[in-house]
Every structure is written in C-alpha cells, then in structure tokens.
Design a protein that fits this description.
By secondary structure, this protein is of the alpha/beta class. It has helices at 43-55, 69-80, 116-126, 147-155, 191-201, 219-226, 261-273, 292-299, 344-353, 373-383, 416-426, 448-454, and strands spanning 25-28, 34-37, 59-63, 84-89, 92-96, 110-111, 132-136, 159-164, 168-174, 183-185, 207-212, 231-236, 239-245, 254-256, 278-285, 303-312, 315-323, 331-332, 357-360, 388-391, 394-398, 409-410, 433-435, 458-459. The chain has a 4-stranded mixed beta sheet with strand order 22-23-1-24. It binds shikimate-3-phosphate and phosphoenolpyruvate (PEP). Pathway: Metabolic intermediate biosynthesis; chorismate biosynthesis; chorismate from D-erythrose 4-phosphate and phosphoenolpyruvate: step 6/7.
Length: 460
Amino acid sequence: MVTGRRLLPTSPSIVSRSHTAASPIASRPGSPLRGRIRVPGDKSISHRALIFGLLARGETRVENLLEADDVLRTAEAARALGAGVTREAEGRWRVVGAGIGGLREPASVLDFGNAGTGSRLMMGVAGSHPITATFDGDASLRKRPMRRILDPLVRMGATVVSEAPGGRVPLSLRGPRETIPITYETPAPSAQIKSAVLLAGLNSPGITTVVERQATRDHTERMLSHFGATVSVAEEDAGRRIALVGQPDLKGTEVVVPADPSSAAFPLVAALVTPGSEVVVENVMMNPLRTGLITTLVEMGAAIEFMNRRDIGGETVADIRASYGPLKGVEVPPERAPSMIDEYPVLAVAASFAAGPTLMRGLEELRVKESDRLAAVAAGLAANGIAAEISGDDLLVHGTGGKVPGGGLVATHMDHRIAMAFLVMGLASRDPVTADDSAMIATSFPGFAAMMRELGAELS
Ligand SMILES: O=C(O)C1=C[C@@H](OP(=O)(O)O)[C@@H](O)[C@H](O)C1
Ligand SMILES: C=C(OP(=O)(O)O)C(=O)O
C-alpha cells in the first residue's frame, strides 16, 4: 500500500516544537476590502474525516480537507495507527481504514504540534485499543489540560502509563483488552471531551452515553451516523444525551468538507470594520452549533446577508456577504459560548470598533485554548489603545465607534486566532498593528495572508 508520506503538501513538522524564531507580521489601514473568496475546509470536520477513515473498514474519500498543520498531524497519526492515507490532489484525500479493533501500536511518539482537537480525539481512539501510544505537542499543547480526556478513558479501562505534571503531554496511554462502556456527564462544555468518549465507545461492547449540559458542536455525532453507527441524541432537562451502540460496522464513505466558519470569521469581520468594504465568503458551514458569531454580529447591526443556502455533505452551507457599516455594542449571553468558542478573539476586535460596550459572558473555556485567550485578548486590546476589563469569566470591551488607535505589538502566545484577530484590527485602526509571530496561522488557515491581500488588505 502506498502510504503517501512523500505526497504531503508540507511537512507536518513545519511548526517546530521549540519554535523560537518568531516571524512578526503587520497589517495597516489602506484600501477597502472587496471580492469573493472561499476559505479552507472546516478544521473540526477534517480531523474527524481522517479519524473515522482510520476506524472504518475500506476506503474513505475526503474532498476539501483542510491542509493545515493541525490536520496534517492527525493524518500522520492515523498512518502511525495503521491507516493508509494518501493525498490525491489538493484537498482530495483517500484513507484506507484499519478498522475498529484493528489499530496497530505506533512505532514512535504521536506529535500533534499545536492541535488540541487532533490529540484529544486520538486519545479516545488509541486509549480504547490494547496498544500503548505516546502523545506530545508543541509548547502550547504542553500547557493544555488533558485530565479532562484521561479521566473518562481511565473509567473505560485505559491506563495512563506516564504523564507530564498536571495531566499534560507528553503522556503515554495504554488501552484495555476490552473497553468498558460508560455514561459520562462532561464536566465542561467541550466537543473534544464528548468526542473522545464517543470515539472510545466505538470499541466497547455496549452502549456508551455522553450527557452534555450545553450543546456543543455535533460533528462527531453526525459523522458516526454517516459512517453507519447507531447513535441517538435526546434533548432532556439535564441537557443532551448522546447514546452510541459500540462496535458497529463502520464503512468507509465520502466526506465533503464545507468551508470553516471559524476561518470565515476573519475576512467577514474585516469587511464589517473596514470602510467601503464588501466581501462574500462562499460555501460557509451554517451548522447552528457553529454560528454564534454570526448571530452576535447581526445583533450588533452588521450588514450580513446569506445567499445560495444549500446542503452539502450533510451540512447546510451558504455564501455570506458582509458589508462595512456601523456596529453597536451588545451583551453576549454565556449559553452562546459553545457555538462561537473560537470566535471570541475576533468578536473582541469587532467590539472595539462598535459604538458602546460589549459584554461577553461565560468565557471560562477560553483560558485553556492554544493560549489563555481571555488574557491574550485583553492584553492585545490594551496594546492597541482599547479599554477592556476581565471580571471573573466575563470580558467587557469599550467600543470606540470606529476610532481604534492601533499601533500595538500583540503577543500571540503561539495562538493562531490571536494573530489573525489582531491583524484584522490593523486593517481599520489608525495605526498599523503587529502580531509578534505569524507562524501559528498555518495551524488552521495557511493561506490567510494571501487571501486577505487578494481582498485588498495590506499585510506584511
Ligand atoms: O471538537 C472540536 O473540533 C473543537 C472543539 C472546541 O474545543 P473544546 O472541545 O475544548 O471546546 C474548539 O475550541 C476547537 O477548536 C475544535
Ligand atoms: C481551540 C482551537 O483548536 P484546538 O483546540 O484544536 O487546538 C482553535 O482552533 O481555536
């Protein structure tokens, strides 16, 4: 079987673990942004397409896979666990599965780089098989909490052979001979926790149930059905109860990946705050568990239109037009957080251009992303002359009604979304904004700078 290692578009180690040589990037105010673009495939669905391809029997074909560092790491891990993974053309990938129960022990450390999703979902996969796998990542991933994944996996019979202090990577995990089905209430609104437990439940001889108090993105549930598993979702007073029948016959299939709403957020907000702009982002996934930012921007008075709504690969997509206009501050309720969890940095930037304050509530989970995003956003705003306050888990941003000073150097702390959000700010602030490092943008949106330049942005 051809494993296709040589065919990878870029080496999965493009962002090295030590990562010391920073390459700053600046954006400056200039011309309006105009044009139609298509941002890359959704990161959450891309990781899952490769993981389900690994666990299925037969061949899975993926269209429009996100070819970014995080996802390439998952492709590499799927290979190490026994899948045949080949890149056939740009965005078109073929996975020949090892099948549930058929994984092989990886010969070396699974290095997930900057990727929380890839590492945590694969822990669920490997930790439910009688193999030992070692997980590691870059300096950012090494700070992120993994006990939230290990705790349920231990209940399912896995052994944590070793772990870094505080339940972090590098860690080694050994799965049991037979995985125990459990009922698990997630301690935080996290699709990664939910997904790790469900993926582990795939190799267990019974029903694995996850209860989540707040609904989080449901790509794993949808993909389970798509690959042939029996999964039920019930809305109850306690939240959502997801029950999966273990050891199904997962069959390889086709996955078409829609455009990532979390990447679309950057050009859309850039158009809303840059005078004279009008941008259309095509094919954006409109899954309601991902559209909290759009809801919020509309409440802020944004000129946003949805066109050409249609279904692609089990998701509704639309072309979204965003046009420049005044925004007003709003209060964002905590229950909306799971549907826009990765969009708060760019929402904070939109809020800095709005008239009046914007209060974002219930942001606890932002502290455990690629950086402490609550702190990183507040510091980035302050560096650019915007008053903001953190109070408990809430963030209050004092909007300027379009008069953002800018001029700051933003510490990105190995976090792609902090870098992209503040580069958006610099397109419409009085003075340029500099992000201290552009390297991490490649983890989710490698073509970001080129695509923004295509729209007329000044980035260098
Ligand atoms: O399941 C997923 O694909 C993701 C879940 C979210 O993380 P949490 O589960 O930690 O909230 C999100 O921040 C991440 O970018 C992708
Ligand atoms: C939080 C993110 O990703 P992950 O958890 O996969 O590192 C993100 O992309 O914003």
